[in-house]
UniProtKB/TrEMBL annotation, chain A:
UniProt organism field: Gluconobacter frateurii NRIC 0228
Lineage, highest ranks first: Bacteria, Pseudomonadati, Pseudomonadota, Alphaproteobacteria, Acetobacterales
Protein family: Belongs to the GatB/GatE family. GatB subfamily.
Stated name of the protein: Aspartyl/glutamyl-tRNA(Asn/Gln) amidotransferase subunit B
InterPro entries reported in the protein's UniProt record: Asn/Gln-tRNA_amidoTrfase_suB/E, Asn/Gln-tRNA_Trfase_suB/E_cat, Asn/Gln_amidotransferase, Asn/Gln_tRNA_amidoTrase-B-like, GatB, GatB_C_1, GatB_Yqey_C_2, Gln-tRNA_amidoTrfase_suB_CS
Matches recorded under Gene3D superfamilies: 1.10.10.410, GatB domain, N-terminal subdomain (1.10.150.380)
Residues of the Asn/Gln amidotransferase domain: 337-483
Origin: domain of life: Bacteria
Automatic annotation (TrEMBL), chain B:
Name of the protein in question: Aspartyl/glutamyl-tRNA(Asn/Gln) amidotransferase subunit C
Biased composition (Basic and acidic residues): 61-85
Region (Disordered): 55-95
GO terms for MF: ATP binding; glutaminyl-tRNA synthase (glutamine-hydrolyzing) activity
Catalyzed reaction equations: L-glutamyl-tRNA(Gln) + L-glutamine + ATP + H2O = L-glutaminyl-tRNA(Gln) + L-glutamate + ADP + phosphate + H(+); L-aspartyl-tRNA(Asn) + L-glutamine + ATP + H2O = L-asparaginyl-tRNA(Asn) + L-glutamate + ADP + phosphate + 2 H(+)
Amino acid sequence: MSYRITGNTGEWEIVVGLEVHAQVISNAKLFSGASASYGGEPNTHVSLIDAGFPGMLPVLNRECVAQAVRTGLGLNAQINLFSRFDRKNYFYADLPTGYQISQFAHPIVGEGKVLVDLADGSTREIGVTRLHLEQDAGKSVHDQDPTRSFIDLNRAGVALMEIVSEPDIRSPEEAGAYLRKLRQILRYIGTCDGNMEEGSMRADVNVSVRKPGEEGYRTRCEIKNVNSIRYVMQSIEVEAQRQIEIWEAGGEVDQETRLFDHVRSETRSLRSKEDAHDYRYFPDPDLLPLVIEQSWVDELKAALPELPEAKRERLEQDYGVSRYEASVLTAEQAVADFYETVAKGADARLATNWMLGDFFAALNRTGRSIEDSPVSAEGLRELLALISDSTINGKIAKEVLEDMVETGESASAIVERKGLRQVTDTGAIETSIREILAANADKVAEYKSGKDKLFGFFVGQTMKAMKGKGNPALVNEMLKKLLSE
Amino acid sequence: MSLDAKTVTRIARLARIGLEPGEVDALGKEMGSIIDWVEQLNEVDVTDVPPMIGTGLAKPRLREDRVTDGNRRDDVLSNAPDREGPFYTVPKVVE
């Protein structure tokens, strides 16, 4: 179903394109040997190149180029063997050179696409226009002094990938799904950690509105630097609403840069950027054009890990899980790895149910992530093996898992220590059942006169008497037999 | 040709150069003559000549991804006119 906003003059459609800035995972910066790691004392991860000293020459970091190529491959995009760096000129206190080295006319990655899954089960293809490499700027600190801003250049010169989408997005939900998918791909490939809180992934959101069926696009506004998926979705909604009100009042939307204020849930004009679109790009004379070999691209491609979609399809085939289950299991690579360790050589259905059910619940309850899970994949597999070979039943297994989470002991050790082995001795089961039936003669009579539902009651009583350790199938079988006597 | 006053003022603002009103006309003429001079290049017929993007002699040298620099704050801040502890400072930037 298409997303529509209803105004006074009828329905409106929204048109959104996203520019995502993703910080490249690398040791050193894009053009200098200073550390690219987050944090650090102010102005310590800075070389004279980053600080814009005269006469310092940039030298391109090979790994950053490789990361951009890998990402391009992950986006099914064209890799440009020829690309070039340009200077994007603007003045800002945290940009010491007065220009950002970026790629304007010749980006390293061209058109690609991202498939996003929506809540209603449908899939949409969002086009990627391009991906280019550029430098990050430094950080301004405004709250330390009444009259001055403080500048920290630790981030200046860190490599960013700017990933530009086509204006293919038609709802806040699609924008959120696109960002999540992009982040998942970046994390799988290991080119960006996707951490929006620390600013290693942030988005500029281009929004316009039009009447359904209208040709072409109306004027758009760009909302700068939105730093969470939720805010991206909210900002699209409020900005679209604002534009609709302008059009419906007979006005014109001005093309401008705006800021999203999540506290007041509104966007505001950023007048300081009014000259921002006159960047006077020109090729950086300090850098030769970047020419890479197809053989190197092929090498990088061969070394790529399995990507989320391929992994999801493989899990569906190899383990017989549903599409939904597969997408939950592949949301993070670590989860998928964990699952496969558990499911390999085990009962895959059992493994899936336990992963998605009790195991995830245990993670949630303890506030742990898959990386520091209190139970290892091998540990969970051992527990499931005990169910499969009828050593314990499913109900007891839940208890054992809780014990594993608490004590860190292995499943078999817990089963032995607590004597939880399932009772498969039919004699013992029969004895228990006969005691229950004798103690509940009235209910037996009711059952025999047609109250079938009481069967569950007898099962419950028997299991209780056996402290949960009865083999459920045998208990059922024996009960049926004895009740029909 | 001479650049008009509006264009001169805009270029000055982009370059963060303050102009006295009296300077605008003269600068317009000067900049116009620079453009005229460069325009001579248009007299050369470059049909079928691919744009030159470098000397063709060298591929860029690429750097290995190792941290080889940094931790030199005093050098980095040596030219800062108004250093405050570990920071550069600038007149407050208000958004």
